Amino acid sequence: MLFSRHKNHLPTPEEALKGRPEPGFPVPDRHTVLGNPLTGPYPEGLVVADFGLGCFWGAERKFWQAPGVWTTLVGYQGGHTENPTYEEVCSGLTAHTEAVRVVFDPSVTSYSALLKLFWESHDPTQGFRQGNDVGTQYRSAIYTHSPEQQSEAETSRAAYQSVLTGSGYGQITTEILPAGPFYPAEAYHQQYLDKNPAGYCGIGGTGVKLSDPSTGSCPTGIRPIDE
């Protein structure tokens, strides 16, 4: 990953790079693992969810391996620059974070299950970094597509904060906002760890678990790590 002196400051719209009105590169048609189209419109009945949890290479693999996920793609979200490139995002001058778009079948899985996977797959207390990856593009984020998703994400954040605090962690820094434009990343980033199985992952959780949303095993929505 590229380094920059703009690691700890989100630029304002006025400070951000201007970008371009159209994408500067093509996006592959289909997912290399799941075989389904990467970009929409998606079949009726499927639901879109967007997450940022550090380097999107390893993050995407976490989600494409999950039951009920129809397709995933990586991209840039939460910033100001139109149709940015990877190099621009890594400069720290676009305000985007690396994100994964997850399209899932709600008859097979749930948004709660994806939130559980999200929280458990990274450390959401690190601010503008994730492990050794430092910069605003590695910040933790949930971008929601409905009031219901917004409420559920905020509730899950509060539940996870409770158990993290009990385990000695600090405050969650995850931003939870209505989804803005999602700009797909370059072709070589899509399903990167399928094409490069020994490639860099960079994703690791705290070891602190949420309860299984299908059982609701604790009133707070959390459960001890040893369960």
UniProtKB/TrEMBL annotation:
Presence of keyword Ribosomal protein: no
Job of this protein: Has an important function as a repair enzyme for proteins that have been inactivated by oxidation. Catalyzes the reversible oxidation-reduction of methionine sulfoxide in proteins to methionine.
Domain of life assignment: Bacteria
Protein's gene: msrA
Region (Disordered): 1-26
Keyword annotations from UniProtKB, A to Z: Oxidoreductase
A Gene Ontology molecular function term of the record: peptide-methionine (S)-S-oxide reductase activity
Organism of provenance: Streptomyces demainii
Family the UniProt entry places it in: Belongs to the MsrA Met sulfoxide reductase family.
Protein name listed in UniProt: Peptide methionine sulfoxide reductase MsrA
Catalytic residues (positions): 55
Alphabetical list of PANTHER family matching this protein: MITOCHONDRIAL PEPTIDE METHIONINE SULFOXIDE REDUCTASE
Record's catalysed reaction(s): L-methionyl-[protein] + [thioredoxin]-disulfide + H2O = L-methionyl-(S)-S-oxide-[protein] + [thioredoxin]-dithiol; [thioredoxin]-disulfide + L-methionine + H2O = L-methionine (S)-S-oxide + [thioredoxin]-dithiol
Lineage, uppermost ranks: Bacteria, Bacillati, Actinomycetota, Actinomycetes, Kitasatosporales
Top EC class of this enzyme: oxidoreductase
InterPro entries recorded: Met_Sox_Rdtase_MsrA_dom, Met_Sox_Rdtase_MsrA_sf, MsrA_MetSO_reductase
Gene3D superfamilies: Peptide methionine sulphoxide reductase MsrA
Pfam family, one: PMSR
Domain Peptide methionine sulphoxide reductase MsrA: 50-201
EC number: 1.8.4.11
